[in-house]
Sequence to fold (777 residues):
Amino acid sequence: MNVLHFVGAFFGDGAHWHGYDGIPHRLLEHVGYSLLALGVAAAVGLPVGLLTGHTGRGGTVLALLATAARALPTFGLLVLTFVLLGLGLLPVMIPLVVLAVPPILVTTYEAVRSVDPSPVDAARGMGMGEARILFRVELPVALPLVLSGLRSAAVQIVSTATVAAYVSLGGLGRYIVDGLYQRDYEKVVGGATLVALLALATLAVFWAVERLAVSPGVRRGT
Amino acid sequence: MTSIVKSTTRSSTRPRSTSAAVLAAVAALVAGCSSGGSGDDPLTGGKAGDGTVVVGSNNFSESILLADLYGEALKAKGVKVSYRHNIGSRETTYRMLKNGSVTVLPEYNGALLAYLDPKAAPRTVEETTAAINAELDKNLTLLRPSPAQDKDSVTVNAQTAKKYHLTAESGIADLKGVAKDLVIGGSPEFQTRQQGLKGLKSVYGLRFKSFKALDAGGPLTQSALRKNTVQVADVFTTDPTLTKEKFVVLKDPKNLFGFQNVQPLVAKGKLPQKGVDALNAVSARLDTAALRELGAQVQLRHKDPLDVARAWLKSAGLT
Amino acid sequence: MNGFFDIPSDLQHSWLGLVGLHLREALLPVLAGLLAALPVAQVCVRFRRLYPPVLGLTTVLYAIPSLALFVVLIDYTGQSELTVMIPLALYSLVVLVPAIVDGVRAVPRETLAAATAMGLGPVRRYLQVQLPIAVPAILAGLRVAAVSSISLVSVGALIGNNGALGNLLADAMFYHRPALAVNSVVTTAVLAVLVDAALVGVRRLLTPWMPRGGRTAPAAAGRPDPAAHVLGEAAR
Fold:
């Protein structure tokens, strides 16, 4: 099949490299929306996950909430928020955040809760406060898992933000939706390639962050 | 571990029942796939081999309504009808008519011509029809055009009209000096069509600040104009929300958007003569006022398009 | 006339009809994905070296948005349900292969040795020992695949009303009727929860030796993350 031909034609066309519909602009838009959604989701998911994980309470409620959020269809939510709120960034951010919170929240909760209790007890015995225990003892050990939750949320956001083009959002999804309506396969295949590359780049970024941020002792242990 | 071993020895019948279950599942899957495939696949299914006429529609409200009008009028004359609604843009539906998976589609003559021949500039409905017939696929044919027109239009929102002193008497050319400051919106396909950004540039010399992809004159377009996300947009002239929102439609003296008469596009030889007569009778009775009123019933009063279509056909004496 | 369960005529289905359509369009691909994943996973277990590249490939596949796959497939399978179901089957495969591989690999060596000592050949050992022990892992994968499949079917609305309950979303926009979008979202979510619960029930039936009521939550995400396995594998 000539998918590669389409990819070549898409990236070879000079018209795709400048202006508001050019690859650099659409890529920046996509990265912008994704970072915003991930940031909001992390601001919600991380504190709640850390707190519930540390106290070990609310696990059942979290599991229920996560199951419910997981069951909500992202595309449906997108159209629903549009028909209720009209055109704009907010109606797009809501479904993306709903999509991203459960993996962050549940993984963070599990990560902190499954930290070996003996060092935590030792720290408590040494007179450390609860906040210090959370950030100095539990979090370093839990970090790899916490990062994996963020990573899976990020990849989902990058991939799903494409359907938001249906309600007029910019970003790389534009190429796919425009290509559908214009019957322009070059655009569809080119857009899909860009989204996949961005998702892989996201994985690479998280891999690098993990290398830098996770303490060598913890990494050796896993 | 012991329990596992026990369970394997205990259930010596399990492999057989498991494989039977798997076989049944495979059978169900294959049956399901093939029925799903052949029933809906446009390349194989719905080819009117059994005399069924497939009436299709594009992805906007008025097209669905018109398809219902055609379909119900055909049914009233004893033609077997099935519907395929909300297929997509013309770029898709035209192909499906060509390959025979759709038999009848409500079209707009000027827009169809611009799709087939972007350079054509006909001055009458007859010239439009002749120009289309010259370019049309050999398996397709146009039936009689109706007087009802629904044009694409360059429309500005109330703020923009006020700011640049645009009224119902203003023309598209009046945007010349200011287009560079304005964002224009339209369906994704508007961006690449002659009756779209291309024509606005070549015919009126307009270059806008940027283009925002919305929908085919639907709620995204209305919302974007209302919120001033775009200042200019492609709105259909029969749109019932036009007057409600105080949008201003600019005149098109150079006839970029041409004639836009509602006209059935049909696959040749797939529609019996009585069906052709039925659709021609609909076209004879349908005018712009009727089209606008029917659209308002669906979009503003939330009536079901099929009910609206049936009621109109009855009142027009066509069923 | 416009009650909650009254569906616009252009969808040509009752509410229940759409529900049936949605379940078929979402779950047949999961079943197909499972049937394809079993042999693929078995090959990956046998030939360990194959597993990392297979996982890499699935990660890339998973990163391609569903809508793009739909549009590309239109040229081959038309604007049809099949066009929606093929990518969904692919996503299910991608989720299930790591789940099955991990499940089968987790079978302790002593158990396998015991089975061999009892005279079980490789086929019977696979069907009677490895697969049953891997059931919880497979079911966890199936739950994730099914829930995400049910959610993704709606996107099929974009390629000519092939999104079952998702088609209500396009109509909500055409006819300015937000209630139709509410109906679509709520019904789809309820279906997802019910199917998820049913799969938990299936797991309990298939693994009577497991303690009841234990922790059941699978790894959280709507679109699960095979990358986790890739990276885990690379680190090993």
